[in-house]
Predict the 3D structure of the following.
Amino acid sequence: VRTDAQVNLDWGSLSPASQVNSDNFSVRWTGKLVAPDSGKYALGVAGNGGVRVFVDGQLFVEDFANRRTRTLTKEMQFEAGRSYDVRIEYYENANHYAAAKLVWAPPSAGKKLREDALSKARDADAVVLVLGISPSVEGEEMDVKSPGFRGGDRTDIALPREQDELLKEVHALGKPVVVVLLGGSALAVNWANEHVPAILDAWYPGEEGGTAIADVIFGDYNPGGRLPVTFYKSVDQLPPFTDYRMQGRTYRYFKGDPLFPFGFGLSYTKFKYEKLKLGANRLKAGEELKITAEVQNTGNLAGDEVVQLYVSDVAASVPVPVRSLAGIKRVFLKPGEMQNVSFTLSPAQMSLIDDNGKRVVEPGEFLISVGGKEPGFAGHADAKTTGVVTARFFVTGKVTAIE
């Protein structure tokens, strides 16, 4: 007899045994489940092949189609201390990750977890509150139906309601709070941004993620990451996904006030930019442009700076992006250290698609910026630990096609 703390059958790209075909096998797990408390439980299975669960010999949930990872649950009344026979049947016949996991949630599970979290927070000097979403709710073709999520798609970008309420309750305790966000996409954490002194987005950090997060929180590592996407304040800032025009989409076309812009990131030190120099203030269409700038660590700690080059065509004959990222370099600087950073802006990066569908460089005025962030934002959206310098240049001559 063996007692399993959980039933998590995870073979990855392998099989349960070396003599079994890894792309065509079936597994049956049998055991007994003893409920610690009486009440209505959510019971089921998460898996990515054919899965079904029997309870006391009766089919409970089933989806024996070979599909992507999804979670199947139903409610069932359990009696405390009673033993229930459980059988899980799983099959895999396609070349993908193989896994099946028994999942269950006891009565008032969410309420108990919340009470436990608040109890620990009351006894703490400071609180690290980990919030966000997971691959179990965001993905593709998933059987997820809950507020803010549908079929793996997100219908809202706010935190789940229960997490938002927990955040406010923890904050009300008067303890210093650090919010750590987990997830694979942007979250509209407006309330946290206004009330919490520190937010760390860890994305999906992997098995050593806890170590990396602790290093940043305790100051053993100076963070230098930058957001690869725009964090909007709400879905109201996003255009309908049935509208395939680029207007309002991504940092390149969005003209509103985001929560955090693309390229945003803070540091435990400060960086200053000076002496932006262009190879020429005027150049002919089809020529490249050399750009240099000086960046200095003016703080007291060593750290990485992510230098970003943006370009804007301010006199285009057709709709073009507000700005486009044209270059990026990561540099490590000790306190007081200074470094020259150089870029080359190619003709293609000055080009546009004209009304005839041709990529061309037009004569006109361009604006460039070099710094640790996008230019033009204020308040919380402006990364105060870094700077930016800007300059203008002009392209002359005739409209020139770019191959």
About this structure: The two ends are 71 Å apart (CA to CA). The helical segments are 109-122, 161-171, 190-195, 209-217, 250-253. The first strand starts at residue 8 and ends at 12.
